[in-house]
Amino acid sequence: MIEIRNLSKTYGSKKALDNISLEIPQGQIIGLFGENGAGKTTFMKSVLGFLKHDGLALLDGEPISHKNIARLSFATCEHSFFPNLSAEAHKDFYQMHFPNFRTKRYEGLMEFFQLPKKKALKSFSVGQQNQFEVIMALSQGADYILMDEPFSGNDVFNREDFYKVLLGILEPNETILLSTHLLEEVEKFIDRAVLIHQGQLVGDKLMEELEDEGKNLMTFVKEIYHYRQDRVSRALSGMTDMDDAMED
After folding, report:
1. pTM
2. Which ranges in the chain belong to alpha helices (H)?
3. 2-247 in CATH: which number?
4. What is the distance between the alpha carbons of residues 150 and 159, in angstroms, rounded to a whole number?
5. What is the pLDDT of residues 198-245, one digit of tens each?
């Protein structure tokens, strides 16, 4: 289990994360949701130890460090691969450094996405680079796979098919923490929804609990964020009033 205790992060005078506490057990697919700038990426990078922060991030009771970091992997749209190396060279590198590397899974996902193995990653499209980032995170052999907006540049059919493949390949001990804005796409694939707003944890709900309450994910999110149903009409009305005033 990953335990997050009072996690906080500041950039100068701005508090990006504010005293977040959260437990992430093995075996769940968790959606991490929030508006742009809510703190989702900062949260993931802090858990992984990429950013200095206050509070604790523990893995089975131990601080996350070089001793146990191999049990976590990260797929980011910022990309963490070597652009001049081929996919096959990356596979060889990972096999050398991660003894639990899942070669069969790697081969299957490369075939699923139809990615070339011999070309340098810099020749891939943005969508292909994001696909490869996900492949390596899933193949590393980690127990906890963190994904930050991994499907930017991918079409809806690729994304939907991938979610189905993901459910088919995950083992019971593997956990996914997926940050995305595509709520309606992932709703039927996740077990739990975690919401961050302005650096604070504002919602944490199992999907089966939402179902029992007769709610869908979008309804839950709108309730938590106090979404105003008249937001668009008010904005349009205000613009129209301004135009009328200018004409007068």
Report:
1. 0.87
2. 40-48, 87-97, 103-113, 126-139, 156-169, 183-186, 207-212, 217-224, 231-247
3. 3.40.50.300
4. 10
5. 999 999 999 999 999 999 999 999 998 876 665 556 666 767 655 555
Of the candidates 194, 189, 196, 218, the one whose C-alpha atom is nearest the C-alpha of residue 204 is: 194
Pick the closest to residue 59 from 28, 176, 67 (CA basis). 67
How far is 211 from 176, CA to CA, in rounded Å? 21
Instruction: Give 171-206 pLDDT, tens digit per residue.
Output: 999 999 999 888 888 898 999 999 999 999 999 999
Length of the chain as a residue count = 248
| pLDDT given for residue 210 in this prediction | 93
For the chain, what is the mean pLDDT?
A: 89
CA-based nearest residue to 27, from 198, 161, 145: 145
Cβ atoms of 120 and 84 within 8 Å: the answer is: yes
The structural domains of the chain, with segments of one domain joined by +, span: 2-247
